[in-house]
Structures are given as C-alpha cells and as structure tokens.
Amino acid sequence: MLQIGPLRFDFPVVQAALAGYSHAPMRLIARRLGAPYALHQVVLDKSIVQSAKAREKLLGTLSPEDHPVGGQLMGAEPLQFAQAAAILVEHGYDVIDINFGCPVKKVLGRCRGGFLLSQPETAIEIVRTVRAAVPPHVPVTIKLRRGLDDSAESERSFFRILEAACEMGIAAVTVHGRTVRQRYTGRCDWDFLARVKRHAGDQTVLGSGDLFAAHDIQQMLAQTGVDGVSVARGCIGNPWIFRDARAVLSGQPLPDPPTVVEQGRVIREHFELTAAIHGPRMAAKLLRKFGIKYADLHPMARQVRAAFIAAMNAEAWLGVLDTWYDPRRNWPPGVRKVGPGGRFATGPVSR
User: Fold this and answer.
1) 203 burial class (0-12, 13-18, 19+ CB within 10 angstroms)?
2) CA neighbor of 206 nearest in space, from 223, 222, 190, 229
3) Are strands 343-344 and 336-337 parallel, antiparallel or unpaired?
4) Cis peptide bond upstream of 68, omega within 30
5) How far is Cα 35 from Cα 185, in angstroms, rounded to an integer?
6) What's the gap between Cα 230 and its chain centre?
7) pLDDT tens-digit map of 16-36
8) Active-site residue among 102, 166, 188, 235?
9) Residue in 265, 284, 277, 281 with CA at minimum distance from that of residue 334
10) Which residue(s) pair with 96 in the sheet?
11) What domains are there in the chain, each with its CATH number?
12) Is 102 known to be catalytic?
C-alpha cells in the first residue's frame, strides 16, 4: 500500500510530473498499464493566476479516468503559489505538488524550482501558504532534490525544509537523489534516500532517480526503505514499466518486453487520445518526441526513430505506425529499455 493523505493505493509506483510530457493522454496510458496515480506536467503559478486563456490551455479538462491526479506547481512568490494551488483544486486536481527540484538553468535563474532549496525560509513560506489555501482534505506534497549542491549547507537547508514541511502537515515528499547542480549526470544517491526515510519516520517518502526498469524499482524499495517510487524519464516511451513493476513486486516473473504489435496498439491509442483533445494535426506535432522515445523498444529502433523524426504531419506519423508496427509482419521480439541510452533484449535486468 501507498498512502498520500486520504488517498490509498494498492501499488507504490507512480508516474512523475514530466515537463513537456505528462499530458492527459500519457497519464491515461500509464494508468491503463498499471500506474495508480499520475501527475500533470509542472505549470508556472504566474501563468494560471494571471491569464484565463493560459489557465485553460495548461490545465485542460480532466476525464473521469484521470483520477487521482496531482497538479505540480512552480514559482517563487508564496502568495501567487497559494492562488495557483486554489485554482488547481477548482479544476478538479486531487493533490497539489510543489516543485522545489527543477534543475533547468532558466528556472534557476528566475529563483524557482531547485533554486528554492537554497532559500529555505521562502520555500517553507510557500508550503505554509499553499497548505492554508486549499481545503484540508486535499493533500499537499513536495518534490525535492537532495540539495542545490554537495555542500554541508545545502544538506542542512534540505532537512530544514523537509522538517518544516512535515510539521505543517504535508502528505508526502518525493526526493530525487541528485543535487540540482548535477541535473541528470552521475549516479543517483540512493543512500541519501535511505537517510531521508530514516529521518522522516512515518512520513510518506517517495524515491526518484535512475528508475528505468522494474528491477530498478524493486531494488530502490528494498535498498532505501522508501514508501514508494516516482518514475520519471524511465516511463517516457515505456509505459510498460508499470506493468512490469506490478509483476515483479508481486513475486511474478518479469513479463516479456511488449511485442511490436502491442507497441503499435499503445502508440496508436496515445495518438487517438491526443487527437481527441487537440486534433490530428496538433497530435502529430505533440507526439513526435514521444515517437522517438517509443522507438527505443522496437527491434529496429534506429530506423523507426528516423521515421518518427521525419514525420512532419499526421498522415506521415500514422504512416510510421502502418509501416513499422504492421501486425501482418513477422517482427522479431521487442527489446527492453534499461537506461537513458541502454537496451536489453530479454531476461531480468539489474542495476
């Protein structure tokens, strides 16, 4: 079980908020393949507070299937953060997640995201105002990295924010085991995640970082003692990671990688869900980057990736599916993705 405030899940693996990716169709695909909870891609508080047009474009309409869903916010001003949180609740979001972890240079330059790990007083005030702005039954959660950098001062700031947030009643904390300065380079420090969980006690803690296969998920849970994990880059183009993790965590054998035909069915479903919201032309544009990631699981990944890159409209995008995922062809087995650039054909995977 995984508990986030009043929400209880039968499976401790969730889909992270992924900037530019975790739109409603991606979340629905993940849910259909086993994810019990997913978060909307991060939105800037200023955008949805100051512009009704931006608000509708960024937040959209939630379908009945897309629950429970978290809305992740990023910003720098406590009052504006709180106003945006209230708007998310009005739009039907079940959880408010505060981003104190984004490592993007532009975000840091505007004193948002991971920068706030160096400003504990501001970060704590943001948590306080957000918690006060939304109804008591709506969980508030936070996303952190293990510090701005490797300094002792950064670590002290991390634990100061964590302790204050727990005292104010946050429902869960997600911790990525890299520093902000690391971005996505080097190994994620899972030992730090274990320290956080020991320090937090009964507080719900989710771990994040270097989760690209079901056995990574299993190993993080066992090694760190965290209550759950948040899968980020590892589920882009690979929503089957949730299916695989459900099997492995229940003691069943790791399922075979999805066949080319199964991949094609899910990719087409992703397109149709996106087209229903944005129309076919925009769907092809939005899903181009997804197609490139989906291609990693195809036995002829290089050619399929090139085909998706070259597809500039809906007809061409669907043509890639018709050609490279044709159910009438005798395709080799699908492959398994085991890292940001790694692929493995069959069998179990370990870190």
Assistant:
1) middle
2) 229
3) antiparallel
4) yes
5) 27
6) 6
7) 999 989 999 999 999 999 999
8) 102
9) 265
10) 71, 140
11) 2-249 (3.20.20.70), 260-324 (1.10.1200)
12) yes
C-beta separation of 156 from 125 below 8 A: no
CA–CA gap between residue 283 and residue 279 (Å, rounded): 6
The two beta strands, 205-208 and 228-231, are parallel
pTM for the model: 0.93
Given a contact cutoff of 8 angstroms between Cβ atoms, the answer to whether 35 and 245 are in contact is no
Cβ neighbours of 44 (radius 10 Å): 20
Radius of gyration of the chain measured on its C-alpha atoms? 20
Q: Return the pLDDT at 340.
A: 64
Q: Is the pLDDT of residue 152 over 60?
A: yes
pLDDT at position 167 over 90: yes
Residues shown for the chain: 351
For the chain, give the secondary structure using H, E and C.
CEEECCEEECCCEEECCCCCCCCHHHHHHHHHCCCCCEEEEEEEHHHHHHCHHHHHHHHCCCCCCCCCEEEEEECCCHHHHHHHHHHHHHCCCCEEEEEECCCCHHHHHCCCHHHHHHCHHHHHHHHHHHHHHCCCCCCEEEEEECCCCCCHHHHHHHHHHHHHHHHCCCCEEEEECCCCCCCCCCCCCHHHHHHHHHHHCCCCEEEECCCCCHHHHHHHHHHHCCCEEEECHHHCCCCHHHHHHHHHHCCCCCCCCCCHHHHHHHHHHHHHHHHHHHCHHHHHHHCHHHHHHHHHHCCCHHHHHHHHHHCCCHHHHHHHHHHHCCCCCCCCCCCEECCCCCEECCCCCCC
Which residue matches tokens 């393949």?
33
